[in-house]
Queue: 3 jobs
Job 1
Amino acid sequence: MHIHTLDNWRHSHEFSVKNEQGERRTQYVLILTALTMVVEIIAGSVYGSMALLADGWHMGTHVAAFMIALFAYRYARKHADNPAYAFGTGKVNVLGGFASAIALAVVALVMLLESLQRVAEPQVIHFNEAIIVATIGLLVNLLSEFDKLSHITVEVNSCKEPPCIEQSRE
């Protein structure tokens, strides 16, 4: 009988990237997006604006995606050293992206049904009130995108010389 263990061949399978700053930024954008979503859905319902309703529910998919991303960050971090995950927890984010895509498809279907109903039974739209809320929604979207772009720019500009780019491709 052999008395050997596999301890000599065991090693870490932690492939997930720890991104605490990204997680914190995601939380801030989540709160801002959730507040804007609620305002747009309520305003869209009150003012009869399908555009506000569609954008509000679309922002709802972003809120769901942010919540899934936060869950994925925490789950991957919590289970990073769990031997049950032979290849690590890196695929958690990919599965989160898939779940977000499914949620977006469901919301698109609901918006299609609502739009068809409004074609059959048109509603009065209070344009002046709706455009104010839409402008606020646009500013929130731009602010969120600017935050993402400023973060990416910092990462790209951290490599200042072309040899750095070549080394990263190897």
Job 2
Amino acid sequence: MLPQEQRSLMRRHKLISNDTPEDRDKNSKAEYKRQVVKELTKHWHLMKGNEAPLVAIKIGRDGKILSTKVVESSGDNEVDGEVLKAINALKLPAFSQDIKSEKISMRIDFNRIVAKQQRAADKVLEEQKSGAPGKIKRFKKQQDETLN
């Protein structure tokens, strides 16, 4: 087997396929983790303070949260509790067949989620200031059409 760096380089140049069972497992796990973070981003927003926790979670093959643990606290027990509540309320799909593990462990840095939400909010504000037709204007137009 080729060293990992060489395999990655060869993949980029299409010299070898990503279709080994190990690659499908790895790629499917990465995609599943992205889905988890995306769902959390939809349902959780930092309400106060500047810091958010780093949380470790384990997810079972059926998509159920097996365990949660605050690895680094935000410094605010209320924020930490809200994060854990949001995680435990997630409705996640079962793993795809490409994922061979019975559980997935991951760490979620909520400061990164907050930063992403802030960038999105800044972009909307910038669109509003510049008068550019952004998501807000399209949404308002759809809303107006629905109400009339």
Job 3
Amino acid sequence: MSLLSSRREQKRFVKFAIVGGVGTLVDYLVFNLTAFLLGLPEILSQGVSFAAAVTSNFILNRNWTFRDARSKRLRVQLGQYLLVNLIGLLIRTPIFAWLAAALHTVMDPLQLPLDINASWLAHNLALAGAIAVVMLWNYFVNRRWTFGDVE
């Protein structure tokens, strides 16, 4: 079941990536609303936004990307999905930290156009890289374990 082995798997991966994009938007939206509009501490807001993104991604993946995966009970699939995503968060954090530090080293001495803050850019690029790596982890593990009953 290689990603490139069948057209069906390629379509599933694209759907999974689209759902991931929606989840990223949910994550940023909920974080900014709870932290900056409601005034919750950023660390709490980050947890709330992570939970919202994982929830929306599970619903979309179960009902669109892997809609034919129904041999497992909803509760079992949700538990597996949450575990995979928590491990993904543990993978993402050190990747993000390493990339941010490396990008800071490169970008801090540069004069960026349009008054772009080098620190802001380094962190956002690091986050994008970490998300890309973890998306692959999440897809392959969820495809084989959480939604392994699809053809």
